[in-house]
Design goal:
By secondary structure, this protein is mainly α. About 80% of the residues lie in helices and about 0% in strands. Keywords: Coiled coil, Membrane, Transmembrane, Transmembrane helix.
Length: about 170
């Protein structure tokens, strides 16, 4: 142990001296230096611990940020894939519906054409029938009626037989 040169007080370990026996202002420069060295060592230790903690926290934060970014990127990719699949499904469905509508339109056009053809054929048939009837009416009221009727009877006989009305005419 070290005693003060005046013989009063003792220096304690760690650089602090007790002034209980010597009173204030009685320490020497060496003791004061030890006090400041200890103080700065303590501050250095605190700063070192704080710096190390900051490095650890920064590293942890960087790791956490990278984890969150990778998780967000994976989620974005998953959502984009899901959206692309949904878009493809809707486009396929729309394309199918469009193709079906085109087929229905083509069928409707074919049906209209068939009906139009049928109507045209019917018109042609009835026009021919009207013309034939007009000719028969015209011949019935002209002098050419008899030869026309005779020609019809000959035509029927050549085809194989006579009808009941022709037999009556032959009898007359």
């Amino acid at each position: 142990m070290y005693t003060h040169p005046t013989g009063k007080g003792r220096v304690l370990r760690g650089g602090f001296s007790s002034t209980a026996h010597t009173g204030p202002g009685t320490s020497n420069g060496e003791e004061l230096g030890k006090k400041w060295a200890t103080f700065f060592q303590g501050i250095g230790a605190v700063v070192g611990v704080a710096g190390a903690t900051a490095v650890v926290v920064r590293t942890f934060d960087q790791t956490e940020i990278k984890y969150i970014e990778s998780k967000a990127a994976a989620e974005i990719a998953r959502v984009e894939d899901k959206a692309a699949a949904e878009i493809a499904r809707v486009e396929d469905k729309a394309a199918t519906e469009i193709a079906q509508a085109k087929a229905e339109i083509a069928q409707a056009k074919a049906d209209v054409a068939r009906v139009e053809d049928k109507r045209t054929m019917s018109e042609m048939f009835w026009k021919a029938e009207v013309e034939r009837f007009k000719r028969e009416v015209q011949l019935a009221f002209t002098q050419d009626y008899e030869p026309y009727q005779a020609a019809l009877v000959d035509k029927r006989k050549k085809r194989g037989g006579t009808s009941g009305s022709e037999e009556k005419e032959e009898e007359n």
